[in-house]
Amino acid sequence: MRKMNFIALDFETAHANYPCEIGLSRVENGIITETKSWLIKPACFPYMNPWNERVHGISNYDVANEKNFEEHWAQLRDWLEDSVIVAHNAAFDIKVLRSALAHYDIALPHSEYFCSVSLSRKVWKQLPSHSLATLSQFHNIRFNHHRAGDDAKACAIITLKAFEEIGAGSVLDGLKKVGITLKKI
What value does the mean pLDDT take over residues 4-8? Predict the structure, then answer.
């Protein structure tokens, strides 16, 4: 039985749905056990949207010698297959994941996901914003915003704090308490 086990996911993108970095944070029994990030040579290389580059600071130079998403997939699949995944603004991150998998003709993982923005809106209704930056400031979480590993870990911490706030015994219990259902990837 899965209790408080999930994977927090974050992508940074070079352009549209082309990832240039992925961050994953593993939560086992309510404890963050590992956080990793990988730079990705995007499928649109060498194009990097200048606005995106200003946001995350990842340049063509940084990714020129990195593996593409397909070359990373064997390791990433170990994190994502048969997992509950959470992302802050999950619609974006899941769209990037689906797009990258489709680009390389890789099957979707058998996983389910939910959104930490939706969760935080239900738990901390009084906040004027539920952005990752606002929630991190509210919870005194220090992180390097717009770097995928740090964002994934901040998402994991916020998700754990939300579940603690509502007295959830498991991910499913917490989601049920706030009326959120898991979606299939």
Answer: 97
Handedness of CA 142, 147, 151, 152 (dihedral sign): negative
* Contacts for 114 with CB less than 8 Å, ≥ 6 apart: 84, 85, 86, 90, 171, 175, 180, 181, 182, 183
Domain limits, the chain? 6-184
Convert the pLDDT of each residue in 8-56 to its tens digit.
Answer: 999 999 999 999 999 999 999 999 999 999 999 999 999 999 999 999 9
Superfamily of chain region 6-184: Ribonuclease H-like superfamily/Ribonuclease H (3.30.420.10)
DSSP letter at 46 equals: T
CA angle 183–26–75, rounded 5-degree value: 90
The two three-digit tokens of residue 145, written as one number = 């915003």
Question: What are the angstrom distances between the C-alpha of 63 and each of 45, 102, 154, 158?
Answer: 9, 21, 24, 29
Instruction: Supply φ then ψ for residue 121, to 5 degrees.
Output: -65, -35
Distance, in Å, from the CA atom of 164 to the CA atom of 174, rounded to the nearest integer, reads 9
pTM to 2 decimal places: 0.96
pLDDT digits (tens, 9 = 90+) for 53-100: 999 999 999 999 999 999 999 999 999 999 999 999 999 999 999 999
